[in-house]
């Protein structure tokens, strides 16, 4: 089941974040998402537990996939795609979506390519010294 994230979900969200990223978002960063307008912060709940989440920022006809992750034991079940597609359905006005991804995160890059994203460039040292990002975009 996909639903809006709640502060009570934060412990599970942060655990998933730490499981997936070398430079995870802080608790404060996640808390700030609850206060934002033009932001979808959704979770995929399975058997009462958060299996994944997405943070999707949108304004006018553009959006940014700010953060998305699925717990390791729930990966490769289509959860990330379901979360992403839910955001697309909620915002039919969006015609362009951007994201940045660690160039070494081949699993995420493959997912984004399956969703239709194309590489538009690279950002040197985006994630720290010698940790470059791949910039991707999806035109709908």
Instruction: Spell out the helices and strands N to C.
Output: EHHEEEHEHEE
Assembly category: single chain
Number of domains: 1
pLDDT averaged residue by residue: 96
Write down the overall geometry.
Answer: globular
Secondary structure tally, helices: 4
The rounded Rg comes to: 14 Å
Binned, the helix content reads 25-40%
Strand content: 35-45%
CATH topology: Aminopeptidase
Spatial order of the strands in the main sheet?
1-2-3-4-5-7-6
Secondary-structure-derived class: alpha+beta
Using the 3D structure, state the CATH architecture: 3-Layer(aba) Sandwich
Q: CATH homologous superfamily?
A: Gcn5-related N-acetyltransferase (GNAT)
Low-confidence runs:
none
CATH C-level class is Alpha Beta
Distance between the termini: 25 Å
What is the number of E strands? Answer: 7
For the sheet with most strands, the description reads: 7 strands, mixed
Written overview of the protein:
The chain has 140 residues and is α+β, with helices and mostly antiparallel strands. It has one domain: Aminopeptidase, CATH 3.40.630. Helices cover 28% and strands 36% of the residues. The chain is built from four helices and seven strands; from the N terminus they run βααβββαβαββ. Strands 1-2-3-4-5-7-6 form a seven-stranded mixed beta sheet. Helix 3 (79-90) links the parallel strand 4 and strand 5 (96-102). It is globular. The mean pLDDT is 96.
